């Protein structure tokens, strides 16, 4: 009973804290230009040219997107965990969503990181092998006078409206 009570007292937002960042792999590091769409596999990293930003695709935390060939009552959501920074000690952990009403982009150090696509898309009742996930992202300079967003893990996120 005390254990059950402990879980009942957890704050509702406790699950929104993204996990810590792991060291980025140097193997397979790509260097896309600013405003260039790029793709990363799980564990892949990109050093954005002309910036100090490294982006690491840590994992897909959840994927409830409505599979092709299935009728669903809602669109679902894919949640990706990214790490931004030069090292795990200084990295900022971030979640981006595929769902249009959630945070598909975030601001960090004068840059905007946007989730373009999460692949593969689920099909039927066949689960996606987590090793096959790929994320397409684009990083661009923040336009001056950017709107307000919500702070999440040291970054500012925006829900597309």
Structure description:
The radius of gyration is 17 Å and the shape is globular. By secondary structure, it is mainly beta. The model is unreliable at 1-16 and 147-153 (pLDDT under 50). It has one domain (21-159). The chain has one helix at 2-8, and strands spanning 38-41, 45-47, 54-63, 78-84, 92-97, 103-108, 111-119, 134-141, 150-152, 155-159. It contains 1 helix and 10 strands; from the N terminus they run αββββββββββ. It is 4% helix and 38% strand.
Order of helices and strands: HEEEEEEEEEE
Q: What global shape is seen?
A: globular
User: Which range does the strand content fall in?
Assistant: 35-45%
**Using DSSP, what is the number of strands?**
10
Largest sheet: 6 strands, antiparallel
Structural class by sheet pairing and helices: mainly beta
- Gap from first CA to last CA: 43 Å
Q: Regions with pLDDT < 50 over 5+ consecutive residues?
A: 1-16, 147-153
Helix percentage:
under 10%
Radius of gyration computed on alpha carbons: 17 Å
Strand order of the largest sheet: 1-8-7-6-10-9
How many structural domains? 1
List keywords for this structure.
mainly beta, four-stranded antiparallel sheet, 1 helix
Write a brief structural summary.
It is built from 1 helix and 10 strands; from the N terminus they run αββββββββββ. The chain has one helix at residues 2-8; strands at residues 38-41, 45-47, 54-63, 78-84, 92-97, 103-108, 111-119, 134-141, 150-152, 155-159.
């Amino acid at each position: 009973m005390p254990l059950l009570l402990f879980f009942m007292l957890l704050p509702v937002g406790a699950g929104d804290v993204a996990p810590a960042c792991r060291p980025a792999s140097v193997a397979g590091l790509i260097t896309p230009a600013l405003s260039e769409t790029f793709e990363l596999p799980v564990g892949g990293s990109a050093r954005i040219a002309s910036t100090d930003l490294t982006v690491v695709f840590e994992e897909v935390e959840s994927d409830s997107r409505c599979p092709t060939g299935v009728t669903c009552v809602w669109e679902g959501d894919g949640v990706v965990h990214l790490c931004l920074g030069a090292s795990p000690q200084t990295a900022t952990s971030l979640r981006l969503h595929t769902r249009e009403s959630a945070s598909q982009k975030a601001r960090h150090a004068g840059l905007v990181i946007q989730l373009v696509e999460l692949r593969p898309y689920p099909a039927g009742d066949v689960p996606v092998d987590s090793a096959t996930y790929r994320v397409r992202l684009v990083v661009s300079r923040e336009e001056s006078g950017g709107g307000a967003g919500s702070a999440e893990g040291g970054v500012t996120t925006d829900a597309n409206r």
